[in-house]
Protein 1
Amino acid sequence: MTRLRPSWVAGANDPETDFPLNNLPYGVFSTKALSPRCGVAIGDRILDVARAEAAGLTGTRDLVQAAKWNPLMAAGPEVWAGFRARIGALLAEGSPEREAVAPLLVPMADAALHLPFDVAEYTDFYAGKQHAINVGTMFRGPENALPPNWLHIPIGYNGRASTVVVSGTDIRRPVGQTKAKEAAAPSFGPSQRLDIELEMGAIVGTPSTMGQPVTVAEARAMIFGYVLLNDWSARDLQAWEYQPLGPFQAKAFATSISPWIVTAAALAPFAAEGPEREVPLLRYLVEDTPGLYDIALSVEMNGQTISRTNMRELYYSPAQQLTHHASSGCAMRTGDLLGTGTISGPAPDSYGSLLEMTWGGQTPIRVGAETRAFIEDGDTLTLRGHAQGDGFRVGFGACSGRILPAPDFFKETT
Amino acid sequence: MTRLRPSWVAGANDPETDFPLNNLPYGVFSTKALSPRCGVAIGDRILDVARAEAAGLTGTRDLVQAAKWNPLMAAGPEVWAGFRARIGALLAEGSPEREAVAPLLVPMADAALHLPFDVAEYTDFYAGKQHAINVGTMFRGPENALPPNWLHIPIGYNGRASTVVVSGTDIRRPVGQTKAKEAAAPSFGPSQRLDIELEMGAIVGTPSTMGQPVTVAEARAMIFGYVLLNDWSARDLQAWEYQPLGPFQAKAFATSISPWIVTAAALAPFAAEGPEREVPLLRYLVEDTPGLYDIALSVEMNGQTISRTNMRELYYSPAQQLTHHASSGCAMRTGDLLGTGTISGPAPDSYGSLLEMTWGGQTPIRVGAETRAFIEDGDTLTLRGHAQGDGFRVGFGACSGRILPAPDFFKETT
């Protein structure tokens, strides 16, 4: 395991910070004085890389002048590596550029964080086996829990990119059609079973060509970085709508991501094997190197931790998911966001959704002095995640969202 | 029914042209001399509206200078109406601007046509009842053909925008996982059951806000125009992958659209009622005015017509689909493309897919001197559509694509 790389920046050598020099994640920030721009988190500061590039400090030109990271993402792995090495050198202990760089550091406490990249399209996978078994048992019964294709295909569906929002954005409770089992007809109103899904998101940097599948190795090289991802879900809408074409409005109202893109390079020391294959994979999906990362993940509701799990619980890696995504000839683009699917561990206190933790709402969980089956208006849900190094951590920052009451819209229920 | 509006442009008053003055559809074209730009079809000519705007002839500024229609689409219904009225005046018989406009007309035969707008996201609905019954019978048996939600919800799923291509683009046969019923495990290779879906696509002009549903009347006003849409489908991939989260790679490899956006204004005289409701709709979906259009549609394979149907066969209108799409609070954006779902009539010669025409491949159809169960390499599939006026028609042009052999990629099948 690698050791802490010391930095001259305040807070960056603190073993509890998410943002040591080993991390250098990419976000978009603004302050009262500065319009939204690209920044790199270091300790409790943000390096204004737009100004750093303009000052000739980054070795790049016009790659981080937009208030999104897409231009750098599209530039490919060699440019990513050069940029990361250069930012690392600027911020390392003993850097000769310290005096030029210091004025470009902004206190994180003064900054507002924005969506770090333009989301081209959003796809959500279903690659956590315990989650698939849990949900399958509840929706279809234990005998049909894991669909027959599940051990062969990284099952996924296209989600909605227009409602991917950055952590801190309030989420309005969705309205929609639901049908109680005993009811003769559906009704329309606010979701009563609003839930989270604890996921990670892989972000595509370099694109692929329509009509040309990619190998797992090519897919791995296309991935720019990762975020935490909360795939908010309205379980009552989902149960009524999802047959035969999959989730639609139950997932379309919001997806929250953490504000910092943690690069594949920063996570490389924490690469981890997935679980054993239960059946052999088709050759196009075989991955020869460890495709997951050892990332500790947790869910908080209103400040109380209600679940802890790890990215290693996934059955398919992001590179395998991306390979399958492109396998038909589907063109992948810079800014595509691929949710891993809910990451549930083996026991209820490691499940990644309230649906699972409360077993469909039947066994509410304790949250401080209160209990919850599903999310109530005013509740704040927060995901956290980090990889643990030797005296340092590579963290994601929080992925947080508070639920606002449903909009007034056709209030009657039938 | 409205009558032909006479134009001074060659061919525009021909009763067989798709592009009389009544139509004025929007495309993007290039010639040897002209880079890609916005154009309006009129008879067998294209009006170079980029140059027309620059010359002060259109009454707009910087709305059609990009080689996409998105800026005008985002400008809203009042601007759309003003622009259409102005273009109509320029091209009408007796126009005082004829001498200024004539040099801006390009022969359609000299032009290459491009995708007319940037597709923000692509959603595909399932709003044809005969199609849903046919496919449901084949995939799930006659007793479960129409899902219980179908008469209440315009069922839809998110598709893939990165592979929406303009008519004339060759389509590579997709590869993917399939599993024969008797096989112990799936295999990987070229699709053997490649199909079309005859659809129309509605294009969102003005956006909606995240967290705010829209009414059917608001949704109707948001729709900029329509295209023909072929939702290419790999039935063998689809059958194996689609449970439980819906179609994914079976549809992700390509979607073709016709090159001309026919505006809602041009189609208004052809508005038509949909079928009777079999059960009452929830109030948010009730549409008080005719939401469909009387548009004759056909499918050709290698120049032979194999099916004829009409947009009136849809059970849900595009405005109802858009309303449902936004109902959860899902933000809709300029450039969103909403496929209607396959439009099948009551009999096999009016079905909108080969899957239905050949009943799952069991009864191949005659195509000239040959027969087909599904599409073979080299086959060209073409959709056509038009609304019939009194001595004129409002047509879409062709939506055509030829199938190329599958890519070389992991040729072994297991």
Protein 2
Amino acid sequence: MAEGERRRGGGRRPAAAAAQLVADLEPVVPDGFWAQDTAPVARALLSSAVVCFARTGFHATTTRDITAGVGLSPGALYVHFPSKEEVLFEIARTGHQRALEALQARADEGDARRLVRDLVAAHVTWHARHHTVARVCQYELAGLAPEHLDVVLDLRQRFAALMRSAVERGSREGVLDVPDVNHAVRAVLSLGVDLVRWYRLDGADTPEGLGDAYADLALRMLGARPDQP
Amino acid sequence: MAEGERRRGGGRRPAAAAAQLVADLEPVVPDGFWAQDTAPVARALLSSAVVCFARTGFHATTTRDITAGVGLSPGALYVHFPSKEEVLFEIARTGHQRALEALQARADEGDARRLVRDLVAAHVTWHARHHTVARVCQYELAGLAPEHLDVVLDLRQRFAALMRSAVERGSREGVLDVPDVNHAVRAVLSLGVDLVRWYRLDGADTPEGLGDAYADLALRMLGARPDQP
């Protein structure tokens, strides 16, 4: 994932191409992302692990890689986490929780068409804003222990259920036209998920701008004209 | 998005759930996928490496993992490939080439709306059919050496250019209504790419069935009614 760096350094490949493939891995974990009762050193370790897991994958990351990222000795990790897998779990759990919260914040809008639009925009904007954490949440779940995967899958189910319920309501109320809800919900969610592969905060779109654009595209997929009142 | 599988399986979190997250890794590399001048042992090593890279990532895979998959000693890899990175390159190069060929096979249709539909269907069907190879092609490119990444990025550019050119033509001819070609082409490609994360050949959709369904959704996104003549 060093291509962005490499190219910015003056290589011959154009910026957009590699950027698209290997989203930049700046540590975009904002203050307040991790649970409030997490010690500052533990938060720093989680943010370092996000970068490591996103760059080389969970299995290839050592505890030494994670601690080195914050200038600590390898043993320091075990003061805060029982294992590397627990670090991944804390990232995946918190990441999915925050994404769910972003959707829930929109979930009391009145009109079903507007609700679907807001949910898609929130979904896309969250994944763009937090693309490095989201990359770990999407691609590294196979590293979780079964009981931890259960917790994360439950959060994912609640997330998908929010979107599905809004689409079903819009369909029932006649403001959307959706021949197959399974395909439509999956496709809409893919718009947000896949951007973690290529999105960069210094690219052409702000998270909010991309959220707006993709929400319009999603409404079209769901059979609603975005320019209807 | 393992939700459907979990329910279908009836258990609390049967194998199917995790399997959907980490799409099935059956070696779905058909005979004839690799270059014809590749020796049979080298082909077997490539297919084994596809499974290893898809399961634990390029960086965490050892040459021993790859050779063990075909019952050979670790040194056997170097008879056929100079390095593990060259194995990844051969997979990525061939995978992108085959996907490009699948699109090119549709690229001489007459009507622009039909052409776009066929390209999306071919894109989605290819990624579903070859989801394990495609997973490596989408998620493991950061393991490539710069000169190899260049080759693969060129193939990706040609791939995206085919789709973009069809969308632009449809837009120019008035059969599509596309406010922003960049967003639209990215969104359409995401439908095919993201399915490598969750698709299983033994799931609800055949590769061709999913290709058809997503082609309809893509035409809606692009402002064409799929039921127009």
Protein 3
Amino acid sequence: MSDIDERHEARMKRKKDVVDQAIAAARVERGVLVVNTGTGKGKSSAAFGVVARALGHGMKVGVVQFIKGRSDTGEEAFFRRQPDVQWHVSGEGFTWETQNRARDVATAEAAWDQARALLRDPAIGLVVLDELNIALKYHYLDVATVIADLAARPAMQHVIVTGRAAPPELVEVADTVTDMTMVKHAFKAGVKAMPGLEW
Amino acid sequence: MSDIDERHEARMKRKKDVVDQAIAAARVERGVLVVNTGTGKGKSSAAFGVVARALGHGMKVGVVQFIKGRSDTGEEAFFRRQPDVQWHVSGEGFTWETQNRARDVATAEAAWDQARALLRDPAIGLVVLDELNIALKYHYLDVATVIADLAARPAMQHVIVTGRAAPPELVEVADTVTDMTMVKHAFKAGVKAMPGLEW
């Protein structure tokens, strides 16, 4: 065996020990609250990837989209065809499209009613609250109410909240938080938002 | 109209102008090379969410998984049921499981042959190269060869590369790069990797 192969083997043995110990230490089984925030790509698509993952395990999934960007997205077309997915879209466009705060508040409250119904249903294994952080950022919804409803959900239900600028109160109670940090973006280099990739 | 509503309307009008100008400036239509890296959650699941998105637009998708963590993931079960998805898994486990560099190199090279076939097929609209960054990090594959094959792909084909520690040469040629930055992770708080969420 060559030197490089031996060093590799020793390094990977040490790594395996560390990984095995971490796996042995993680024993709790429960629903997890995930927050995907930041200004980079992948906050919503990571949630939709987990939807596919959950469906592969035979789970039922509920999705509420709080800010409707467009009505012809690939993810909506695809997941509406899946019998185990409930897909709710609310809102009339990005908040800079409506330019009407009172209407945005009413729309967000109606969407939260739909979210709450999912959060009270133990048959739903995964709830995605897409762009909820935007509704919280603009104070269309009360963050304390949202957190109380999240805390009261079924013990084994997973929730993924997406959107830039997650409020600190939500980050505090979440289990797993990722900041999707933009390194670079094709859009800034003049590439159109491409169907099948961006929407 | 109240003060807060007026300020909101003015703010959103300004925001709409900025957004509209950016959309007007982005005119190029072509395949985009995306890299999802970093130590946080969501690198692979964001890619799988885009798979769903592409399928919703009627595109064909190819996935190559370079590092096979486990054989019973929800995403694999779900997407193997989709007629427009080609799903290739290579590797015999995380690299710290095999502890055999020569075998890992041979496995990565065989996986790259599968990737190259997808990258030469204009009928494939989206190619996901899952955990390719790991194979590059350990020098199982030559980064210059990988970049040359990516550059030679069909003009409208999108590619998503995932895995922590993306090599700088790949970041340099990519169009959209996101660093999934870990803020916190349930696993570190003792929660098991949950089916339907983590795998």
Protein 4
Amino acid sequence: MVLATDLYQLTMMAAYLEFEMSEPATFELFVRRLPRHRAFLVSAGLEQCIQYLSELTFDGDDIDFLRAHEVFANISGRFFERLRAWKFSGNVAGIPEGVPFFPNEAILQIRAPLFEAQLIETYLLSTINYQVSVASKAARVAMAAGDRTCVDFGSRRAHGPQAGVYAARASYIGGMVATSNLLAGKLCGIPVTGTAAHAFTMACPSEDEAFRRYHAAFPDHTTLLIDTYDTLRGAVRATHISGELKGVRLDSGDLAQLSKEVRLILDAEGRDSTRIVASGDLNEYKIRALLDEGAKIDAFGVGTEMVTSKDHPALGGVYKLVSKQVAGVEQAAMKLSPGKATYPGIKQFWRERDDVGRCVRDVMQLASTGAPSPRATPLLVPIFERGECVYSLPDITATRARCQTEIASLPESLLTIEGFGEYPVEVGADVSELMVRLRAEVGE
Amino acid sequence: MVLATDLYQLTMMAAYLEFEMSEPATFELFVRRLPRHRAFLVSAGLEQCIQYLSELTFDGDDIDFLRAHEVFANISGRFFERLRAWKFSGNVAGIPEGVPFFPNEAILQIRAPLFEAQLIETYLLSTINYQVSVASKAARVAMAAGDRTCVDFGSRRAHGPQAGVYAARASYIGGMVATSNLLAGKLCGIPVTGTAAHAFTMACPSEDEAFRRYHAAFPDHTTLLIDTYDTLRGAVRATHISGELKGVRLDSGDLAQLSKEVRLILDAEGRDSTRIVASGDLNEYKIRALLDEGAKIDAFGVGTEMVTSKDHPALGGVYKLVSKQVAGVEQAAMKLSPGKATYPGIKQFWRERDDVGRCVRDVMQLASTGAPSPRATPLLVPIFERGECVYSLPDITATRARCQTEIASLPESLLTIEGFGEYPVEVGADVSELMVRLRAEVGE
């Protein structure tokens, strides 16, 4: 995966080497602003970033491919030899997965020679941007569903097979209880569940027979899809199977109304314990509306809108140079482009809580300044030191549990899917002073 | 990748085996309706589907993972033995990549035992849904840019590293001339180009020095990013480098106005051949607006909006049973759910052109009916026969060229990014009659 990056990262690396720009620099990966309709974001994707940085090397094929590109025609063999021997040697700090965060807070902070820090930008961004998008959307879906369960059903609409696995993972962290994606279960240890599909019903001689066969194969785990032909008739037919029926699924039509009618049909046949699962282009707003209408739905299968974060399909995470060492002296760096200015300096982000543990505010300060108050805890924790991973990655179920706890500790004004407040992230006096000084210097 | 599918595909497979439902069935993968703002879709992703079907097997690990899942507690060992020995044995037809298509036209048509056809649904959908989305969006971007060149810069905002590669591939087919993604270059044979980044400028002692160094390393391939501090000063500094300068890039601010001023600065210094590249959250509408404003831009770097197909980030491709064999007799199948009804039967999709080769209409007919007219050509071509690939995949550059030609042959009313007409896809009398008959039968 070392070539899963932009060409200009490699050209910049070659130029850095050519001009012996080998001193360390610090980059921060952060989001400039919250997408509309998001009160907070949820950290996710760190595990994949750790795997990537741990395993990253150039093999002979990769180097041959680069050498053959005309852009490197004037670059000496020294560059390619350097790539051949290379392994990530830097320090990384990061916000643990499942932790809510806000704009301008570094999700990852990389301290490494420019040569190395540049290479990894594209991969880290694509991994973090996507998983954060999905975890954040999933948190909203879970919030809307309250104590109903939600399951990821979105693999078929994710942006390719890998995105389906990462969506399962990120949405589990953000609040789903399971996924339908088997590979996500195998690779990431997420619970995998499922129902049945229209094709099965259509492949059988009749709907009655389809239900009987499916239940015979999976007597303890059958959730029947009942809307292939006529939903209410399907519900009646579902009650005909002998033995326990775990659930029925509705995937089309007026889900609120149908769920009430189906509930009556099931209850009339003593199927009180049979759960009603709903699916079909659901999102947090539709779930909220269904529950407001009194829908008798016990679980939601959520797909397309969550795995593509459809209302905000691209998180604008960026990776910016905030400090560099020049002749042994650390120099803070900032960009001044209109609307794209950055906060300079190597920072820490502190979260302050009140007596009952509820988050009150975050504070951005230079890392060298120290905690703004005794009760502030740092968001960034060490992940890599000198190229070695020093972070003990929690089990994904523990990460999911942490996410629930952390979200619950946010100000209540943020815990709504619409009309939420804004969480205060204060810029420390040290950072503000640094900005004034740098603007004066580079403004010329 | 065999587990990159939904659990219910495997449970259905187990039930099919249990009830000896081993006869062949036909599924079609299609889109029900065009996303708003799309006059047509572009076929893409077939290469990955072919790779997947060619290589698909269950290894011991996969089978152990499945066996351990509680849902399979009552399933006999025969099922797992069958998986161990399994290889795709079906027939596949498909629309070649780069060909425009319309709703209800099968992009892929799979004929295989239910057991096999079911398994592959999720992977095929996620691959086709995503690549078609991006190829179709890229076609619009290229249309807006006219004879200016457009390059994919979107990897960092794609939904994970694999999506970045697939976006590069699909957008190249749809009309980009290159990508910044090196892995896409290596794996898919797409031209890779790039410029420079803000980090390089910020890492150097000054902007002047950054430009000098980058140009020294890449004398024939330097496109300098000039907006790190002040764009017009950056443009002046770019003219200070000695030797040829291929291009400058603008990534922020009023691109139309800045490009005109930068053009004047470059021309005043005899840099007539230096091209101006623009980037920064571009899409087809912004490109059109820039050109309408007389922007002096020669090339566009397009990222986020294209690789996420941001205005329609999820294509609703579906995979539906259209026919099955029962006791040796073929039976057409259709779904009746409200808004989700399907066209039954094994179909062919015919494209009719006028005397100058311009597309006039498509016709959906049962495959057994034959061509609707002598000048109609079929969209579906053979891809697999009895599990063996029989399709000779064109080089991706040939596919891209075909895409250009095919799009140019669409009715002119479709070749606009706004206010386009609707292309006629006619439902053959044979299909209509079949629908009436089936509705009567299953409607009971």
